């Protein structure tokens, strides 16, 4: 019997494209070329360290076609739009505070955020974030970008397969090749005739190719390794735009995987969680006086303020993470009755969340006490932000236990995006200086440690200027010395670790401010082009 026309199994047919599937179009070719450029820009951004221009340009160029496609398909959902706004706006940190720790955080956020955004907006059918977001993130980061990993090359040469378009493209390439040598000669002649034009040509050449042999070789190295990055970008855009891989980790598969995990009896889950709660209860009873002193702002005997604030903080972070894992696993692994979480498990999750919030509140109160005595540092500010984020997440978990229909995962994602964007856009280094100066001037801090500001990025330096007129001559002198150090650094030329010129709006603003307060003109170092 001939079964050549027998239907394919469902799992196999989902991965086989229809026989009449169209090939790559001109738009695919343009996208492939843009991805080659974006891959190179991305490695310039990462490899050069704090290249603000590349970071911002990468974000704008990468987001522009996404915005056009979003408007064309009219897929307007709140959370993807918030995520896209963060992806576009946050790279401005590289222009305003390139040396800030926020710059590194934004780099990782962009690397993870764009694949997830493309999948939620175009690749996922409903485009919503739900409790199975983990599966969506895995698919967005590892399935979609690699399912058509090598497709950038056939897409790039697709117009050449069309006879008419192929001839046109060949003629364009031939014309560019013919014009290259005469253009090179003309540029050299005009450069020798007009020094201003020659300087422009040299700046462009240095920006594109490099200003030394080592830099040219480094750029070639980046260009070579940018090819796999470009392949990842194109596959990510192409597969999501064309709706590929719909049969992999779809809604049915995610429900099946989730249901397969929910096999542990409720009694077993409760038996595992209750001893942990009893340990916490015993701990709180034994440490009751300790907690009363913490919230009263009293340092216990035998502790210095610094030791008291730091004591147990690392253990708190570990315990908080373990508690979060316990709640997730208890909710995921316990058996469900008609898809609903057991009431006993939800009650235990609420109690565990409340205990965790007490631990977070105690640690936060000790940190406030510490800051009130010694002021802010970069680490203290980031630690305080992290504790606030954890507290919000556990509050949302409590809401989910009290109201099972509450969307805890989308709410947690939205809270993270808002808090993370606030942290980065406010510039942690600048916030540290502004808060310390304000606390000192308001009389909260007995002194202001200007020496600690040397470890911060130059984007925070302008907020030290009010200390120049301070009544305390020692602090005013320290502030002047610090600002003169920044002025000398500007004149010698700020550089990234790879030797590239650091030239941002924040640096220009600082130069203008320091020129005014120090009473002399400050010129940015001219050893190299700002490009």
Number of strands: 0
Q: Count up the domains.
A: 3
Helix content: over 70%
Low-confidence spans: 1-22, 526-531
Order of helices and strands: HHHHHHHHHHHHHHHHHHHHHHH
Spatial extent as radius of gyration: 29 Å
Q: What is the count of helical runs? A: 23
Q: Report the sheet-strand fraction.
A: under 5%
Spatial shape: flat
How would a textbook summarize the main sheet?
none
SSE-based structural type: mainly alpha
Overall pLDDT metric: 79
Distance between the termini: 72 Å
Give a summary of the structure in a few sentences.
With 531 residues, the protein is mainly alpha-helical.
Plain-language structure description:
This protein is mainly α and 531 residues long. It folds into 3 domains: 22-159 and 208-255, no CATH class; 262-426; 429-518. 71% of the residues lie in helices and 0% in strands. The chain has 23 helices and no strands. It is flat. It starts with 9 loop residues before the first helix and ends in a 13-residue tail after the last helix. Mean pLDDT is 79; it is low at 1-22 and 526-531.
List the helices and strands and how they pair.
Elements: H1 10-13, H2 26-48, H3 52-73, H4 78-89, H5 93-96, H6 101-123, H7 133-147, H8 152-156, H9 158-161, H10 163-193, H11 195-208, H12 213-241, H13 251-261, H14 266-286, H15 288-296, H16 305-310, H17 313-333, H18 343-374, H19 378-402, H20 408-426, H21 428-441, H22 473-492, H23 505-518
Helix pairs in contact: 2-3, 2-12, 3-4, 3-6, 4-6, 4-20, 6-7, 6-12, 7-12, 10-11, 14-18, 17-18, 18-19, 19-20, 22-23
């Amino acid at each position: 019997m001939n079964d050549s026309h027998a239907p394919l199994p469902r799992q196999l047919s989902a991965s086989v494209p229809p026989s009449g599937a169209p090939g790559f179009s001109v738009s695919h070719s343009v996208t492939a070329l843009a991805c080659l450029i974006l891959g190179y820009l991305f490695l310039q951004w990462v490899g050069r360290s704090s290249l603000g221009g590349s970071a911002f340009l990468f974000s704008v160029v990468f987001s522009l076609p996404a915005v056009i496609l979003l408007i064309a398909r009219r897929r307007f959902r709140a959370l993807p739009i918030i995520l896209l706004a963060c992806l576009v706006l946050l790279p401005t940190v590289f222009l305003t505070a390139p040396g800030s720790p926020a710059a590194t955080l934004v780099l990782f956020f962009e690397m993870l955020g764009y694949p997830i955004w493309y999948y939620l907006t175009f690749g996922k059918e409903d485009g919503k974030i739900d409790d199975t977001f983990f599966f969506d993130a895995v698919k967005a980061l590892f399935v979609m970008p690699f399912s058509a990993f090598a497709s950038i090359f056939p897409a790039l040469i697709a117009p050449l397969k069309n006879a008419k378009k192929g001839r046109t493209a060949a003629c364009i390439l031939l014309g560019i090749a013919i014009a290259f040598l005469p253009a090179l000669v003309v540029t050299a002649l005009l450069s020798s005739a007009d020094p201003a034009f020659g300087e422009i040509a040299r700046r462009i050449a240095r920006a594109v190719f490099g200003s030394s042999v080592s830099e040219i070789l480094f750029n070639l190295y980046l260009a070579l390794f940018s090819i796999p990055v470009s392949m990842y970008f194109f596959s990510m855009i192409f597969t999501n735009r064309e709706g590929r891989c719909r049969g992999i980790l779809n809604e049915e598969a995610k429900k099946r995987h989730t249901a397969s995990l929910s096999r542990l009896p409720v009694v077993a889950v409760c038996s595992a969680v209750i001893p942990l709660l009893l340990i916490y209860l015993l701990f709180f009873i034994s440490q009751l006086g300790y907690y009363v002193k913490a919230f009263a702002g009293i340092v216990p005997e035998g502790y210095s303020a610094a030791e008291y604030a730091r004591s147990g903080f690392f253990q708190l972070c570990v315990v908080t993470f373990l508690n979060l894992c316990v709640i997730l696993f208890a909710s995921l692994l316990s058996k469900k009755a008609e898809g609903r979480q057991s009431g006993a498990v939800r009650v235990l999750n609420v109690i565990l969340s409340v205990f965790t919030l007490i631990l977070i509140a105690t640690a936060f109160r000790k940190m406030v006490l510490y800051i009130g005595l010694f002021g802010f540092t970069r680490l203290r500010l980031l630690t305080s932000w992290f504790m606030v984020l954890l507290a919000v997440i556990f509050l949302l978990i409590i809401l989910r236990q009290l109201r099972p229909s509450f969307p805890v995962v989308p709410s947690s994602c939205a809270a993270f995006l808002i808090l993370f964007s606030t942290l980065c856009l406010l510039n942690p280094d600048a916030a540290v200086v502004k808060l310390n100066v304000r606390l000192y001037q308001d009389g909260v801090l007995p002194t202001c440690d200007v020496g600690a500001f040397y470890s911060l990025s130059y984007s925070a330096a302008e907020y030290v200027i009010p200390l120049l007129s301070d009544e305390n001559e020692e602090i005013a002198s320290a502030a002047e010395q610090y600002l003169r150090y920044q002025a000398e650094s500007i004149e010698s030329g700020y550089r990234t670790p790879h030797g590239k010129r650091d030239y941002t709006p924040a640096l220009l603003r600082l130069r203008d401010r320091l020129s005014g307060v120090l009473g002399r003109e400050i010129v940015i170092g001219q050893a190299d082009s700002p490009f």
